[in-house]
Each structure stands twice: as structure tokens, then as C-alpha cells.
Amino acid sequence: MKAYFLQSAGDRMNLELREVPVLQPGPNQLLVKIRASSLNRGELIPGHGLVAAGAAKPAGQEAAGEVEGTGARVMGRCPGGFAEYGLMEASDAIPVPPNLSWEEAGAIPLAFMVVHDMLVEQGNLKPGEWLLVTGISSGVGVAALQAAKAMGAKVIGTSGSAEKLDRLKALGLDMGIRTREPDFHDAVMKATGGKGVDLVVNNVGGSVFTECIRALAYRGRLATVGYVDRVMKAELDIDALHAKRLRLFGVSNKHRTAGERATTVRGLIADFLPHFASGRIKPLIDRVYRLEELPQAKAYMESNAHLGKIAIRM
What is the pTM assigned to this prediction? Predict the structure, then answer.
């Protein structure tokens, strides 16, 4: 079968397409004929720590396809998902609603599991609350917007592109702030009547961390999920943390156990899958590339021109 391998080389991530044997499933694993997958910045962009230097590793983290032997349509976490076949843990498999295309299904698992973790499991977002998403045009940012609106929340998003913010209004964005700088506090306060937001999803990183703290309301929560700015240090206003009874948490799958991941899968199935099945949430696909075009898809992601997810069709 055809499969991509990824190797970290300093400030580069190198992709190589190889011909390898079809994998054999072990206990509690499913062999999936992959129909689609999607790109995730944390794996493909250097500096995110998901691919350590050393020997090349199978590329891709999620997939959608048919289970060999049963034909069941599934989507889920799938290490080595940029390939014609992949192994998926049975506990990671999510049924694909019939109204979803393969590309849409392949774009759901990781983004929406991260979103469930930060909005539901840890963020405790409630109907009527305000959510702020920095870098909202990313795959996780758009997924957070869609899920939050389905949950009845109000959403503010930041982006350097006015065009992207305008397009996201069709998905329910209540307010867009055109900026890549830490200068959105005043606009957030004005939008929320001086209260601040209840939850922040920080996709950008340390350069806006302090401003995110300033924008939080009493008992606000801050989720750190990305750092496209590569800024890994920031000042923390301890007085604000103390006085406003804030809660800060990280969102990463890097050290999670299989049991913890399975809990998130069950939460996604219970809370989000009905919205996918009804069409209330429809994953936003920017572009679709063929498997052999993965290097071009990676370059497109690095350009930051996309809105939502970049899909790979097998």
C-alpha cells in the first residue's frame, strides 16, 4: 500500500511516499480502508513537538473509511492516516453519519475531540456564555465556533483576515476582530457590556496570552491549545488570576492515556454526533487534495491561506 512517512529535520518536516505492506490488526484494532484524512498543524509544522527528530514515522493522525470485513463507515484517531489502509483502535472508532462525505468525516475526529475537551470537559461552556477564539480561522478555531454555536454560546473571533471573518459570519460568528496583535481587550469588553468573556480558546500562543487574561470575566476559563506564533513564554497577572478566580488549562493529547482519549470519544459521540447527523454542524473544508498531493497540501497549510480544514482524498 502507499503510505507517507514524516521526518523532523531541524526547522523542516520532510514527507516521503513509500510502498509498504498492509498492516495487520491486533486485539481490539480495526483495519480500515482509508477514504479520507485531513491535515493537522501540530504534526506537520516544526516546533509543535509532536514529531521528534530521528527515524521517519508514519504520517497522519486521523482518518475516515470502511472497516475491512464489515464495510462499517468509521472515523477516528488513526496514526499513519496518510495511507491507503490504517489501524484504528476500536475505542477510537466513531460511526460516520450517512449525510457526511468522506472528506467531511476525515476532517472531524481530532479537531472536534480537541474542541469537546476544551469546551465541554474542561471549559464547561454554557448556553448564553461568551467564547473568545484567537486565530479563529484555523481548523480547530472554526470547529470551536461551530460547536459553541450549537451549544448556544456567543462567539467572538480574532483573525488577521477581514475576508475570513466575514465568511465565518455565515457560521454564526457574533463578532470578528481583525487583528494578529494583543490589542483586542477593549473590543471584547465593549461587546460583552464590560463583563469580559467566560471562556477563551487561545490558538495563537504566548504573544496574546496576557491579553486573553485581561479579556476574561469573573470565573473565566482560558484554554491553551496552540502556539502558531512560536512564543512559549508569557507574563501572568497573578492578581487577576486571584481576584477573578480564573482557571487556566492546557489542551493536548500528547500525554493522554488511551482511557482518557476513549472518554473524549464517548463525549463527542454523545454531544456532537447528533449535530453532524442532523446537519447542524457541517465541517468546513477549504480544499481537497489527492494522497500524492500531500506535499502541496502541507505547503498550502504553511501559507496560512486556508479557512477551516484541508482534506486528503485517497
Answer: 0.94
